[in-house]
């Protein structure tokens, strides 16, 4: 194996086709999209050279701050919810559900494999106000409350979106973090228990520090996934009411395909890419020392 890896021709023959396919599928569309940022128009109306006009438009666009704020708020809330609930479930598997853990993990993981549109329709029915009363509003009215039109106000719509995406993805992060917890040596846990460490002390002093690398990976996965969220929000609220739940991805889609401005849509996509890179670098830099110590 060492002789093969040391031969540049063998490495080129083995990796060349894969790199070529990766370049064609991933890098070429990215570079193509980057080129669109210097043009206006679409494939139907034709393209016109715009220079840096699309980048100047970013700073004058009144709709962009709203979409950017919703994107950041959504990413922070959903990431914290997904990773926190997933971590609590993983701890539950380790400490209390060792025997029934596989069944519980399967049930919790099940929403991950459901189609996004099906989940969105399910939550629409759960929180429906009219023409039919959904189970949530029926429960509110049963306890003497007044039904709520969850999809007519920004705050309530965001709440439903958050609940749906946390419920849908918490099983994935629970399994991911549980796999990380399994790498912690049992001898270390048993030694700490023998010395009198309780559950909380075990979590604070041993489990959290030793599982920090997989926690950081989960944060990076989640924050990048939520910054690029599109399908679940589009299927549930369509970005409404108004544009209150419209992230940058949806604004980019509408700009490119509804308004036919590929250039400005690509500029929004580039902004989102830079945002994802910055957030990832910040997370790695903020946790690098602790991970290294762990």
TrEMBL record:
Annotated transmembrane regions: 12-32, 74-96, 103-123, 157-181, 202-223, 262-284
Keyword ATP-binding in annotation: no
Biological process according to GO: transmembrane transport
Segments forming domain ABC transmembrane type-1: 68-283
Name of a matching Pfam family: BPD_transp_1
CDD domains membership: TM_PBP2
Main location: membrane
Subcellular location: Cell membrane
Membrane topology according to the record: Multi-pass membrane protein
GO cellular component, one term: plasma membrane
Keyword Transport annotated: yes
Alphabetical UniProt keywords: Cell membrane, Membrane, Transmembrane, Transmembrane helix, Transport
Family, per entry: Belongs to the binding-protein-dependent transport system permease family.
PANTHER family on file: BLL4140 PROTEIN, DIACETYLCHITOBIOSE UPTAKE SYSTEM PERMEASE PROTEIN DASB
Identification of the protein by name: Putative ABC transporter permease protein
Organism of provenance: Actinoplanes missouriensis (strain ATCC 14538 / DSM 43046 / CBS 188.64 / JCM 3121 / NBRC 102363 / NCIMB 12654 / NRRL B-3342 / UNCC 431)
């Amino acid at each position: 194996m060492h002789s093969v890896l040391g031969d540049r021709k063998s490495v080129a023959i083995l990796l060349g086709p894969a790199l070529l396919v990766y370049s064609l599928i991933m890098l070429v569309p990215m570079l193509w999209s980057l080129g669109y940022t210097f043009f206006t128009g679409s494939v139907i109306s034709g393209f016109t050279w715009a220079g840096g006009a699309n980048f100047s438009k970013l700073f004058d666009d009144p709709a962009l701050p709203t979409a950017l704020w919703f994107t950041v708020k959504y990413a922070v809330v959903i990431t914290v919810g997904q990773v926190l609930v997933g971590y609590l479930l993983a701890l539950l598997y380790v400490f209390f559900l060792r025997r029934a853990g596989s069944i519980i993990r399967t049930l919790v993981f099940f929403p991950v494999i459901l189609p996004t549109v099906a989940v969105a329709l399910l939550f629409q029915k759960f929180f429906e106000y009219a023409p039919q009363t959904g189970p949530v509003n029926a429960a509110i009215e049963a306890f003497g409350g007044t039904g709520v039109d969850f999809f007519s106000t920004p705050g309530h719509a965001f709440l439903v979106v958050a609940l749906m995406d946390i419920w849908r993805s918490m099983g994935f992060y629970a399994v991911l973090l549980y796999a990380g917890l399994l790498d912690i040596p049992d001898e270390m846990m048993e030694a700490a228990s023998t010395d009198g460490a309780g559950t909380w002390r075990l979590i604070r002093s041993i489990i959290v520090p030793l599982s920090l690398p997989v926690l950081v990976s989960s944060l990076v996965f989640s924050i990048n996934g939520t910054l690029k969220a599109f399908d679940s929000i589009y299927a549930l609220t369509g970005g409404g009411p108004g544009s209150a739940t419209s992230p940058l991805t949806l604004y980019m889609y509408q700009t490119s395909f509804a308004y036919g401005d590929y250039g400005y849509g690509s500029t929004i996509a580039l902004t989102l890419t830079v945002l994802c890179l910055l957030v990832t670098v910040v997370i790695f830099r903020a946790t690098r020392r602790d991970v290294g110590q762990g």
